[in-house]
């Protein structure tokens, strides 16, 4: 059977044998604007390929097309984009992203030793933080379990010595309560 060749038959999809799973798409009649964009792109591509050495294989042609795509999107300014490249315009646009994206948590385990004064030192937000554990634990080996600003100081046996949340503007974390009385008396006596 002979296939119809009229414009209406071709535009309706009856004028060609379509591939399985494909569909036809056409522009609006008497509206060459959409076709004009594609035709202009094809003209630019053909001019680029005319300046190239003829490809001897499909791989070489694909290489030339890859070079054209990189040039067209990253180097060549476009009048419709105010003399900018498509990639520059794309990068300047705000991208869609999921709402309420969870902030990744920095998890670390650090093996350390409590110093002779009963403190450990930890770097957080590029600053050293001095955490007091107590003189009773001096020279004891501990693990620091760090999850962002939350810190747990645990012995190798699993005993929790201290749990705290680091603050961005604070460097020294003493134990709760007041300083021992003998330290206050020593400070007062040295002042006079």
Tell me the layout of helices and strands.
Elements: H1 7-12, H2 33-51, H3 58-74, H4 86-92, E1 107-113, E2 119-124, E3 127-132, E4 141-147, E5 150-155, E6 160-165, E7 172-173, H5 181-191
Parallel strand pairs: 3-7
Antiparallel strand pairs: 1-4, 2-3, 4-5, 5-6
What features would you describe in this structure?
With 192 residues, the protein is an alpha+beta fold. Among the domains are: 31-92, no CATH class; 107-175, no CATH class. Helix content is 31%, strand content 21%. It has helices at residues 7-12, 33-51, 58-74, 86-92, 181-191, and strands spanning 107-113, 119-124, 127-132, 141-147, 150-155, 160-165, 172-173. The strands form two sheets. The chain has a four-stranded antiparallel beta sheet, with no helix packed on it.
What Rg, in angstroms, do the CA atoms define?
Answer: 36 Å
H/E element order: HHHHEEEEEEEH
Output the structural class. alpha+beta
General shape: elongated
Taken as a percent bin, the fraction of beta residues is 15-25%
In the predicted model, the low-confidence regions spanning at least 5 consecutive residues are: 1-5, 179-192
Head-to-tail CA distance between termini? 117 Å
- If helices are DSSP runs of H or I spanning 4 or more residues, what is the number of helices? 5
Mean pLDDT: 80
Approximately how much helix is present in the residues?
25-40%
Biggest sheet layout: 4 strands, antiparallel
Q: What's the β-strand tally?
A: 7
In what order do the strands lie side by side in the largest sheet? 1-4-5-6
């Amino acid at each position: 059977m002979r296939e119809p060749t009229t414009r209406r038959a071709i535009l309706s999809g009856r004028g060609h044998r379509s591939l399985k799973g494909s569909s036809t798409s056409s522009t609006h009649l008497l509206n060459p604007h959409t076709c004009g964009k594609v035709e202009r792109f094809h003209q630019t591509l053909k001019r680029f390929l005319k300046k190239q050495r003829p490809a001897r294989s499909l791989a070489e042609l694909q290489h030339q097309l890859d070079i054209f795509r990189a040039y067209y999107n990253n180097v060549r300014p476009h009048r419709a984009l105010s003399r900018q490249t498509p990639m520059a315009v794309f990068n300047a646009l705000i991208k869609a992203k999921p709402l309420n994206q969870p902030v990744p948590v920095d998890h670390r385990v650090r093996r350390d030793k409590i110093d002779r004064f009963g403190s450990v030192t930890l770097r957080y937000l590029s600053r050293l933080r001095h955490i007091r554990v107590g003189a009773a634990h001096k020279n004891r080996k501990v693990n620091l379990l760090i999850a962002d600003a939350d810190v747990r100081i645990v012995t190798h046996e699993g005993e929790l010595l201290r749990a705290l949340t680091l603050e961005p503007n604070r460097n020294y974390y003493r134990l709760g309560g007041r300083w021992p009385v003998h330290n206050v008396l020593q400070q007062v006596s040295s002042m006079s």
